[in-house]
Amino acid sequence: MPTFPDLFRQLHSDAQFWSLRVVDEQAECYAVRKNVPQPPALVSDRGAMLTARADGGCGYAATSDLSPRGLQAALDRATAWARATASRSLIDFRAMPTPAPRGSYASPEVEGSRRSQREWYELLNEESRGAGFDPRIVDWEATVEARVGEHRLLTSAGGDVVQRYRFVMPGIAVTAHADGDTQMRTLNGYRGLAQQGGESMLERFAYAGSGRRVAEEALELLFAPNCPSGTTDVLLMPDQVILQIHESIGHPLELDRILGDERNFAGTSFVTLDMFGTYRYGSELLNVSFDPTLPEELASYAFDDDGTAAAKVYLIRNGILERPLGGALSQARAGLPGVANSRADNWNRPPIDRMANINLEPGDASLGELIAGIERGVLMSTNSSWSIDDSRNKFQFGCEWGRLIENGKLSTVVKNPNYRGISASFWRSLARVGDASTMEVLGTPFCGKGEPSQVIRVGHAAPACVFTGVDVFGGEA
Amino acid sequence: MTDAVSPVETYFRDLAALLDRSLGGGERYTCRLDAESSDFVRFNRGKVRQPGSVTQGYLRLSLIDGNRHADQSLTVSGDLASDREAVFAALRGLRATLAGLPDDPHLAYATDVSSSRVVRHGSLPAAEAIVEAVLDAAHGLDLVGIYAGGPVYRGFANSLGQRNWHEVASFSLQWSLYHRADKAVKSAYGGFDWDGAVLAEKMAGARERLGLLARPSKALEPGRYRAYLAPSAMEEIAGMLCWGGFSGRALQTRQSCLFRLNEGSARLDPSVSFSEKTSEGIAPAFQDDGFARPNEVPLVDDGRMVGSLVSPRTGREFTLAHNGANASETPESLEMQGGTLAADDALDLLDTGLYIGNLHYLNFSDRPACRLTGMTRFASFWVESGRIVAPVDVMRFDDTVFRLLGSELAGLTTERELLVSSDTYHQRDVASMRLPGAVVREMAFTL
Fold first, then answer.
1. Can you tell me the mean pLDDT for A21-39?
2. What percent of chain A is modeled with pLDDT above 90?
């Protein structure tokens, strides 16, 4: 079998620059629902994208035909697209650098031992049995997706990057119903536990035994009062802070949104190019980084899909907006420094500006101190609902689990905790940031964006955070 | 319809024949091919942002032995000589997987052989020519959007000899014309036969509406307002109902946002009726496991829930009759009946309130109560005495479907729009909805 470098060398084009990006991923998905092992779903996804620049235009062609003939046909099509649209192109690609990256990356435990199918089912069966202990538990499921992949980028300028990944994404979801109401509780949301590396993450998140705990919390929610309405302090736990970061910092800072590429679909941004360097995004406690270096975080890598080397940089420091989330192409368009975040979700979609790992840096307060500092407020955990306007400003988010805080102590559990606000002012109400002991490294494999659309893995690490003067409310009476 | 057999269909027939010859004693298979050869051209600022093509084939192979089964999804090249080894490897892997599995009490696969073939090709110029036509029509305008076009293939085969083929060459152009910031008019043109005159007409209409956005915008205070929801806004609300709302499994487990409607503790207006009408949609008439879909499955009639989408697996689990729903039990050809309000009279009935052209980013704020939140977007206007007065700044609503399409529903338009899905996650979608517009007496806006 010829290697991809061999195949790449056989390709020919009169384009000024071309590249081959190959994605090869294998996944095993297991689930036990209501104590019934579901049939496994195995995935083998392998294909290539050829990109060509010619006469100032740039085109792509993706194919699941990895034969020499298939790859050459794709390169010819990409080159034809570049030529056909050169005079209409928004960007003059003759002015763009031709990347020649060389290097490699590997997830932690990429070669480590792997559970067998039987072992996965044993674990999931155990969690399922633990969850289904009460007749008011009407549905429950323990799941896992274990995935490995190799991504390779070769460029006509001499670039060759190999990045090998391993991901484990376990989940628990329990639904309780009684007296006309239904409540769902999950383990950090649907696929809310998602990390690179091996199965050691199961121990880090105490997965074993979580089925029973999640089910008990679902039942507790069923008989809890609705979250009260009013303006109050909120303590967001890390599995909600990541959603808040994602929607109201990550997306608005994407440079392609700011440049207008997404206006027909995902939307634009309230952030404008002139804000970088001066705009107060949040209180002085707000420090947000683009950090591809945390080994276990979902979107760590050494190079993005355009071949730009990745490094940690601050996006917001001491509350001041410093830099956007834009890859090399967007940086050139905007005349701003950015990050290595030009990413594609698979071989059949082109790279665009995406979040990768967007983290909120820890502060100095323990969880106990955060709670003790709140006279009246609501603790909210685990996102269940997310909605934000197309400029990423007016938002409304809901959580699975709420708990009132009264006189510095946790009190009543409440259901349907929701809150709403405006990104441009919300982060300025950040009053306290949890220390490293409250940090969790989380993420989601489901960030959607782009035309054609893409759903990509993003990582978020965050501590618990306190915000003041927040508009909170519950469900229907 | 056409009798011509495409190379992809020939490939799939040969692949199925290969699988037929490759089974061991007692084994059965089902397989599904999802393939497409698509052009995607992205626009921004009236220019080309990202042009490209994608040729992809995904095969989902399910091996069944007794009551044990497992699925393997794999990419295929479309050349059987190249794919043969990968298919054999998948079969070997599935056999090894089955050996360690228990029986599946909910296994369901089609045993009544029901073959079908639909091939529809229209008149579609080369994508390069369409790009030129779009940009010429939008000359001088800030156009952003995407063109997606080309053939989409869906195939099913099983070891009992069933063969289903669905091949449609279609296109979808979705674009927005921007006036400034977030003020824009969104338009769509899709179908099977490209007609430059239709594009010109739609672009002219969009230019005209763009003029309305030049007026000073109105910022509304939170509160309750009369509203007209255009069909494209109704698409977002119906889309939320499709998120498990009509699912037989979600109704049985009370996870559906419509379970209270199903149990009779909530009602919609008697004029509200929904059905899954496969005969009028563009989705295949067979589901992933090869079961045929009926022409129509009534879901809501006279404001009451009268049916649900039941997959064969859910049918087994809850002892229900299935109706050919996919595993997700999501409508793919949802229809809502029109009402008695002429679309031209909708603004008169609205009188004073909000004309909502599009909604954006909806989610549940209380799922059991079918309470939704979301944003207005694109061309949304303030209307006084039945006349458009000003564009409105984006507003957040938070209200229940039981109010919007129940106690507060003032009228549904007689005319309905066919809204073809422009979803391109993983692959081009083949779902559609046919929906009317709605005037509501009161809609709650919160931010």
1. 98
2. 98
- Residue contact B364–A44, C-beta within 8 A: no
- Considering only CB atoms, B176 lies closest to which of A64, A264, A396, namely A264
Same domain, A39 and A159: yes
Structure-token match 């949104």, residue found: A257
Over residues B88-113, mean pLDDT: 96
| B344 pLDDT tier (thresholds 50, 70, 90) | very high
Are B56 and A57 an interchain contact pair (Cβ–Cβ within 8 Å)? no
Report whether the peptide linkage leading into residue A452 is cis, meaning its omega lies within 30 degrees of zero: yes
Say which CATH number the domain at B72 has. Answer: 3.30.2290.10
Torsional class of B303: left (φ above 0), alpha (ψ -120 to 50), beta (otherwise): left
Segment 5-64 of chain B within 8 Å of chain A by CB? 38, 40-42, 44-45, 47-58, 62
- Per-window interface: B 309-348 vs A, CB < 8 A: none
Place of tokens 């220019």: B47
Q: Report the predicted TM-score, pTM, of the whole model to 2 decimal places.
A: 0.97
* d(C-alpha B127, C-alpha B149), whole Å: 8
pLDDT of the residue at B2: 62
B58, B70, B394 ranked by CB distance to A42: nearest: B70
Count Cβ neighbours within 10 Å for each residue of A37-55 and write b for 16 or more, e otherwise: bbbbbbbbbbbbbbbbbbb
Asked if B81 has any chain A CB less than 8 Å from its own CB, the reply is no
Nearest CA in chain A to B100: A118
Instruction: Give the integer Cα–Cα distance in Å for A259 and A326.
Output: 10
pLDDT digits (tens, 9 = 90+) for B14-61: 999 999 999 999 999 999 999 999 999 999 999 999 999 999 999 999
Choose from B54, B92, B180 for mutation: most chain A CBs within 10 A: B54
User: How many other β-carbons are positioned within 10 Å of the β-carbon of residue A214?
Assistant: 25
**By the 8 A CB rule, do B49 and A90 touch?**
yes
> β-strands A465-473, A418-422: how paired?
antiparallel
Work out how many domains chain A is built from and give that number: 2
Q: Per-residue pLDDT tens for A452-464?
A: 999 999 999 999 9
* ipTM attached to this prediction: 0.96
> A41 to chain B nearest CA, in Å?
5
- Structural domain boundaries, residue B195: 7-212
Q: Å from B9 to nearest chain A CA?
A: 16
Digit-coded pLDDT (tens) for B256-266: 999 999 999 99
Predicted confidence at residue B281, as pLDDT, reads 87
Total number of domains in chain B: 2
- Chain B hits for A177, CB-CB cut-off 8 Å, are 253-254
For the cut 70, the answer to whether the pLDDT of residue B1 exceeds it is no
* Residues A475, B356: Cα–Cα separation, whole Å: 25
Point out the domain boundary residue: B162, B191, B212. Answer: B212
The token duo for A210 is 């979580």
Backbone phi, psi, residue B90, to 5°: -65, -40
B304 and B196 within one domain: no
Residue showing tokens 């989705």: B283
| pLDDT, tens digit (0-9, with 9 covering 90-100), for B316-336 | 999 999 999 999 999 999 999
pLDDT > 60? residue A439 = yes
Q: What are phi and psi of A125, to 5 degrees?
A: -60, -40
Q: Which domain holds residue A457?
A: 230-473
Q: How long a stretch of residues is chain A? A: 477
Residue in B closest to A333 by C-alpha: B49
Q: Looking at the structure, do residues B392 and B288 belong to the same domain, yes or no?
A: yes
Is the predicted pLDDT of residue B3 greater than 80, yes or no? Answer: no
